[in-house]
Amino acid sequence: MKPTLDFSLSQYARTAGVLLLISFVGGGLGEFLILSRLMVSGDAAATASNIRSSEFLFRFGFAAYLLEAICDVTLAFVFYKLLEPVHKGLAQLTVLLGLASTLTFAFSEFFYYATILVLANSSYLKVFSKEQLDSLGYLLLRFYNHGGGVFMVFYGLASIIRGYLIIRSGYIPKWVGALLTISGAAFVIRNFLLVLFPAYVSNYYMLPMVLTIFCMSIWFLVKGVKTNTSPLGKA
Fold this sequence. Notes:
mainly alpha; single chain; 235 residues
């Protein structure tokens, strides 16, 4: 049974690498390239004009988020199978936290998509002035931004636990787990800063996770796991 288990862990590691890479690209396109290009901070009219003139690009950004969400849901299962040999209970907890993270982010994504409906030239919107629709569209995008941020704690906690399990695993390098733990902690800190002290919020807190996801995806794809090593702890 040992060779079968080892091969299965290797498969899950490679799968995680592929999904992490797709999620990395999808999230990067949606958040850092497309939305940052179309949304003008503090200027509702300019933002609305950009979205109307680049509607397909805006819709493509939402499609990228959908792809990222599919990967994240699948990753919740893949990480569970990959880390179950270390501690089954904690691995199960990461599944719940990962799904909670994806669901709350999906709820926030609704406001992203609703912006298209508000800024469309539909006849039933004629009762509103262009300025009102522009402002409402911008407000929806702000809801999206804050909605994704205030529930970042679920993803952060899942990452911290996964990082701990990776460190304990013995078949994945400890530095991978350390990076993931630090990145998860940065997400949790940013979450509570956004809620309690928004003036101190910075996107720099997200950089460790960006680096970690990229490094993990490459490592899992190229190196996989050490199939001749037993977990340090199992429960």
